[in-house]
């Protein structure tokens, strides 16, 4: 059996984003039980030169929707980066999941050799579809989800590996 580009992307993004939403539920329960200021979590950074938790979730969502849209050859949905609460972040995940659910295998399968161009400022990176997905998009996605997990775990939210992995 062959693993298709669709199977390697959309279901993987959706599964981990669903797990991340459940982790944010546990973070909210932690904040409520300890009567904490939720901004202590959403604004937390693991190191001063790293982005805060809010931005980690935003980038994870952007990576998932961006990668899927690029592979499908469609416009990337634009979300404002205006989330400030755990509830806002869960809403962003929900919007990302809703977009991912609109994509079909027929839109993404066969994109292994498709040229993907990423522009950041004046820098341009070119990838073939498979290289982009496996060497850039998935590692970037998992990095930001893992950083979110680490921020919450560091701040006492009772989560573990099973929460991160869920039921793939």
Q: Overall mean pLDDT score?
A: 97
CATH fold category name: Four Helix Bundle (Hemerythrin (Met), subunit A)
Q: Order the strands across the largest sheet as they lie in space.
A: 1-2
CATH class: Mainly Alpha
Number of helices: 7
Poorly predicted runs of 5 or more residues:
none
Supply the CATH superfamily name. Answer: dinb family like domain
Number of spatially distinct domains: 1
Shape: globular
Specify Rg, calculated over alpha carbons. 16 Å
Spell out the helices and strands N to C: HHHHHEEHH
The second-level CATH architecture is Up-down Bundle
Q: Would you count the extended β strands for me?
A: 2
Strand content: 5-15%
Largest sheet: 2 strands, antiparallel
Coarse structural class: mainly alpha
